[in-house]
Design a protein that fits this description.
Blueprint (H helix, E strand, L loop, with lengths): L1 E6 L4 H10 L5 E7 L11 H5 L8 E2 L2 H4 L5 E4 L3 H14 L3 E3 L6 H10 L4 E4 L5 H17 L4 E8 L9 H14 L3 H4 E3 L13 E7 L5 E8 L4 E8 L3 H14 L5 E3 L1 H7 L4 H10 L1
Parallel strand pairs: 1-2, 1-4, 2-3, 4-5, 5-6, 6-12, 7-9, 8-9
Antiparallel strand pairs: 7-10, 10-11
Helix pairs in contact: 1-9, 4-5, 6-7, 6-11
């Protein structure tokens, strides 16, 4: 039985992970972490997630309970994920991080932690989105420089960072496939007298409205046609299931920095590889 701690336990993703973990064989929730002073402090994490009492009270002290777990799943905030990775490293526990919006300095701290323990960082843990990453790369290589690339992402009104980490990763995948410089060729929205669209530009646009869980569109257009790759999430469970799959995978891994593609790519029967193979036939 793998003993799991969830950081950001009372957030949307934290609750989804606790709910899904309650249905997974071989997983036991032993810790639920939230920021100090959170309204849910002291309450049972299972009750908050809607799966019944689990006997795990929400606390803010990860360092106190981390040694009693097998792994940590973090969906807290970019301000705290780096610190949680450092605590995981000090306790010798692997950590899976799904937080987005992290600064370069925060990512560097996570990379430092990965020298001691396995750290998996992914902006999106759904199988479909990770297939989208690969398809965007393939499409960019096939279509080439004559196609303009626009990426549009839609999320709920409560999301704090923009554009999404998934949209940024998609833009980076396309830029790499086309041999472009992400620092120079990726832009974020447009305003004012922008002039004609320069060749080689990759644009990201963020929409925030209602309760949209997540939607990403990668659009390639020339002067005669348009090709679009679309992913829509209908439930947070798809991300929670992916996070738990990553959590099981990371147990026993050597120290290092991993991503979701490592989880999906290792299994030759994975849904991603089967989908890619069907498209290639």
């Amino acid at each position: 039985m793998l003993k799991l701690i969830v950081c950001g336990a009372c957030g949307r993703m934290g609750r989804a992970i606790i709910s899904c973990a309650a249905e997974e064989k071989g997983l036991a929730l032993v810790g639920a972490i939230e920021r100090e002073g959170h309204p849910c402090a002291g309450k049972d994490a299972g009750d908050i997630a809607g799966v019944g009492t689990q006997g795990v009270a929400v606390t803010s002290d990860l360092s106190r309970i981390a040694k009693g777990c097998d792994l940590i799943v973090d969906f807290s905030s970019h301000e705290t994920s780096a610190r949680n990775a450092e605590i995981a490293a000090s306790c010798g526990k692997p950590i899976v991080i799904g937080t987005t919006g992290m600064s370069d300095e925060e990512m560097m701290r996570i990379k430092d932690a990965s020298r001691s323990v396995a750290c998996l960082v992914a902006p999106n843990m759904s199988i479909g989105v990770n297939l989208l990453f690969r398809l965007a790369d393939e499409a960019a290589r096939a279509l080439g420089d004559e196609y303009d690339v626009e990426i549009i992402e839609v999320h709920h009104r409560f999301k704090k960072d923009a554009p999404s980490g998934t949209a940024k990763r998609l833009a980076q995948k396309v830029a790499h496939a086309l041999g472009r410089d992400p620092e120079k060729d990726i832009i974020y929205g447009r305003k004012g007298e922008t002039g004609e669209r320069p060749k080689g530009q990759i644009a990201l646009h963020a929409i925030r409205q209602g309760d949209v869980i997540g939607e990403h569109v990668v659009s390639f257009a020339s002067l005669g046609e348009r090709v679009e790759l679309v992913h829509r999430a209908h439930s947070r469970e798809t991300f929670a299931r992916g996070a738990l799959r990553a959590a099981k995978w990371i147990i026993g891994r050597k120290p290092g920095l991993y991503e979701m593609q490592d989880v999906l790519g290792e299994n030759p029967k994975s849904q991603v590889r089967k989908a890619i193979r069907r498209l290639s036939d």
